[in-house]
Amino acid sequence: MHPGRINLVLWPITAAILLGILLITCRIRLYRTYPYFVSYVALQIVSYALLFGPIQSSYPVYYYPYYASLLLSAMLSTGVAWETLANSCRPYPNLLELSLVIFRWSLVLAVIASVAIAINQRPAESTFANWTLFAVRASQFAQCGLFLLLLTLYLYIGLSRRNIMFGILLGFTLLTSISTLVAGVVLVVGVYGDSGHRQSEINSVAYLSATLIWLTYAIRESVYFDRRTKTVDWLSSSIGPKF
């Protein structure tokens, strides 16, 4: 399985951007507020490092680690959806409880639907890869609905567009929306010829765009973090005990 020329260019760039995001988020201690997001970014870096070589040389070596990382990424991105929902709706306990119930049931129904589709496949198509892809697409579908909802209601829940949570939401909304749309088109139209590579390239461009959004917001948050730290240090030195 060759990744194609576009992916060979985009993947190292995306990995470098993700590494920058991880370093910044660890520096500003974002893992305390968004542990799933930071873990998601770390997993992507590890996946790029492990899979970029084997994908070009040995498909059997690449096969299971790739789909395992795909499942882990889907689980962590679901965790990101949950933590953004919890953080954004924290001032509204009733809304938070209702939103969590809706999200859980939408995720369960999406997974059930994907399993039903996978069961109805022909035996030759019922592979580990297809089952994994169905499960990942189901979780992405549920996440896409939640991210779109939160992004639409950001003004009503008091979320500033300068807040890093908005950047996380924006990036994941872009990523899950395009992935869901492309997967839906492929499911309806079918994959013929070079369509598989085209689908992968579109998703790679969307992922690169999402990482650029996260990097922009991470840099902005780092600037705010430095300002707050300097302010706290100045106040501590100004009002602290004098000996």
Show unreliable segments: none
Counted by DSSP, the helix tally is 8
| Shape category | globular
Which fold name fills CATH's third level, the topology? Rhopdopsin 7-helix transmembrane proteins
Count of DSSP strands: 0
Amount of beta strand = under 5%
Helix-strand layout with pairing:
Blueprint (H helix, E strand, L loop, with lengths): L4 H23 L7 H17 L2 H4 L1 H30 L4 H27 L8 H25 L11 H26 L5 H45 L4
Helix pairs in contact: 1-2, 1-8, 2-4, 4-5, 4-6, 4-7, 5-6, 6-7, 7-8
Structure commentary:
The protein is mainly α and 243 residues long. The chain has a single domain, classed as Rhopdopsin 7-helix transmembrane proteins. The chain is 81% helix and 0% strand. It is built from eight helices and no strands. Helix 4 (59-88) runs parallel beside helix 6 and helix 7 runs antiparallel to helix 8. The longest helix has 45 residues, at 195-239.
List keywords for this structure.
243 residues; mainly alpha; Rhopdopsin 7-helix transmembrane proteins; 0% strand
Task: Compose a concise summary of this entry.
The protein has 243 residues and is mainly alpha-helical. The chain has a single domain (5-220), classed as Rhopdopsin 7-helix transmembrane proteins.
